[in-house]
Design brief:
It contains 7 helices and no strands. By secondary structure, the chain is an all-alpha fold.
């Protein structure tokens, strides 16, 4: 899979997590309602976030100084969840790639400060889980 395809899969995963949150649904419900299944990597990411949600959110909350998960913009929260899942469960993906992709998603789809915020939180998480 080319890096462009992986980037698109992460973007699709972000959209699916956003949709689930907006609808108050689970990721599984959103996936089941799709007419065409998304890329396998997008499915792996969103199902991984859902399966590991407690640990992922615990790590984000512990490293997002001054922020609760509930107060974060939905996009930032979703980007952080995807990247934290990858840091934990996808050791084959380099840390730098995960952080770069997450920062790009945050800069593209969220606030002006989101890229810096996401980078700071993920860098701290990466130091803890990928030491």
């Amino acid at each position: 899979m080319h890096e462009d395809q992986r980037s698109e899969a992460r973007e699709r995963a972000l959209a699916l997590l956003y949709e689930a949150e907006a609808k108050g649904s689970t990721v599984s419900e959103v996936l089941a309602a799709l007419p065409v299944p998304p890329d396998p990597l997008a499915v792996l990411l969103v199902e991984g976030v859902e399966a590991h949600r407690a640990r992922v959110d615990e790590l984000i909350a512990a490293h997002a100084k001054g922020w609760t998960i509930a107060r974060m913009p939905v996009i930032d929260r979703s980007v952080l969840r995807i990247a934290t899942f990858e840091l934990l469960e996808r050791p084959d993906v380099p840390t730098a790639v995960i952080l770069d992709e997450a920062v790009e998603l945050a800069k593209s789809f969220s606030t002006d400060d989101s890229g810096r915020f996401v980078n700071g939180v993920l860098a701290a998480i990466a130091r803890k889980v990928r030491a």
